[in-house]
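__Record contents__

***
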Amino acid sequence: MFLVEDGAVAKVTASFFCGNLSIIFVLSFKYFLKTRLSSFMQLPKTPIQEISNSLLEEKGVRVLVKRDDLNHPIISGNKFRKLKYNLKQAKEAGFDTLLTFGGAFSNHIYAVAGAGASFGFKTIGVIRGEAHETLNPTLAFAQSQGMYLHYMDRETYRRKSEPEILEQLKSQFGNCYLLPEGGTNALAIQGCEEIIAEIDQDFDVLVCPVGTGGTVSGLISGLKGNKEVIGFSALKGDFLKDEVNQFLQEIAVENLDNWAIQTDYHFGGYAKIKPDLIRFILEFEKAHGIPLEPIYTGKMFFGLFDMIAKDHFESGTVIMALHTGGLQGNAGFDFRT
C-alpha cells in the first residue's frame, strides 16, 4: 500500500483522469455500441396477421402474413435479418467501416446507412450510375446517416465483384467490411433461417419475394425439406433458381425439392410497374391495413392472390406470406413520378 499526502493524491488523480479521459470515453462509447448491437440482435419476434376476403373464403384458403416489416423502424424486414450477423462479425473483427453496393433506390443502401449510424460504423455506398444534383429520398437518407456515396458507371458496376475492381476500392477506401449487393452471403442466410423458428402457427406453404435469393435460401434451409416454399421473383428471367441452388450448396444444403421460384409476376422486370399492380397495392392496404411496395411485396401478394384465384392451391391450404419490408421504397416511387 502506498501512503501519499492528500495533495499528492489529488495531483495524481487529476493527472490520471485528464491524461486518460479520451481513453475512458472511447471505451465507454464502444461498450455503449456493443450493448446497443446486442439489443438489436435480440429484437422480439414479429407478429403474424391473418387476412381474409371473399376470394379466400370461396377457395377455402387461409393467408397468414408474417409482419417482418415491423421488426425495426429503419433496418426493416429481411434487411434486419441479413445484416444481423454481418454487423456482429464486422464488430468482432475490428472493422470500423462497411462498404456495400446498390442502385439509387436500394433498400439495402438505406438499411446499411441506418445500421452504420446506429452502431458506430462508417459507411460507403457504391452506387450504380451517375450522380444527381438532387438526391432521391433513399440516397438523401443514406447521406444524412453519414454514408459516403461513391458513384460507379454501369459498365464498371457490372464488374464490381472482380478482383481488379475490389482492389481499386480497397486502395481508395482502405480495409472495409465488404457487404455484397443486396446483403446476401452465408451470414445473411443464417439470419433469415431464424424466421422459421419464430413462426408459431402451422402452415402448408411459405411464400416470399425474391431479389438476390438470400431470404428464400434461408427459409428453405430453415425448413429442412418440410412444407413448401415459393419465392416470387421481382426480376425478369429464370436465373434465380440457379443462384438459390448455388447459395444452398455453399451452406451445405442440397437435394431439396420442396421449393420453387415463380417467375410470372415480375411485371416486366426489376422496379417495373403497371397500373394493375398499383391498383392492387392500394386496395390491399385499404382492405387489410398492411402497406406494400411495388418492387417486392406488391408483386408477391399480387401473384399469390392470382394463383389462389386460378386454383393453384387446394381448399384447406394454409399459406404463410413473409412481408419483407422495404416500404422506404414507396418514397422513391413518389419522387420518380
User: Anything to note?
Assistant: Residues 99 and 178 are 5 Å apart (CA to CA). The mean pLDDT is 90. The chain is about 50% helix and 15% strand. Strands lie at 48-51, 62-67, 97-102, 122-128, 148-152, 177-178, 205-210, 228-233, 259-262, 318-323.
